[in-house]
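Progress against Task 2.4 (sequence-to-structure conversion) is shown through the following example record, which the project officer requested during the mid-term review.
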Amino acid sequence: MKRKLSLVILACFFHSVAAADTVLIEPRIVGEQTLFEEQLRPSARISANRVVASVIAPTTSQSAVRPSVHLLAHDAWSGTPVCARWLSSDALYEAQATYDLPATLPANGVRLAYDSAYVDTIGNLTPERLGISVAKGECTEQADHFAPAIWNGDAGAPIDHIMIYLNSQSADDVYVQVNPPDHPHFIECLPLDHRHTVAMDRRCRIPFDVFDQGTVELELNAFRRGIPDDPIRFSVELPSP
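Structure tokens generated for the chain above:
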């Protein structure tokens, strides 16, 4: 039986975005209920079909506000709902929230309010320890169109690549193909070197110069004893230049 990968995508950008006067978006409120849920479990529970995309700035320049999520969405996402999901690498912490983006997106992106009750536990986690995805649509919909976000990073720092963190379920080899099936570029995904790898065990570094479109189509492929798993296809939509 073929398996499906669970993945965490970390995308980062080559350009700088001014962080000043960034609009803060609160989770959606329905009646008296805020659509933000989180839990910290005593033991890990992982779904093999769970797909999580995470976009941060992998630099030494950090945000003064922690934890923080800075979303860099394309203009076409204006006025649409997005679903943000968090998952720690040890699979003990998990959260999700629904946000409604403004009708006009500012050029410097928006910050997603993240009022966690577990700031002391997850607030300072690195990208390899906490994955975050921001997908277009409601949290009840299939997550396969993602926008880049920055986790605890300086939105004004220049970045030149995308990182993908995934749970390959101990696959022998993992590769990502850029803009399949026409693009011949394959990139190997390397094992993570820390011990807390229940929810993610590989990282794929994708240089930004392989992208020539606003929407980047990606396909993840894992192999076990030479036999491929079912591929995972998704897209990352970059903000307008």
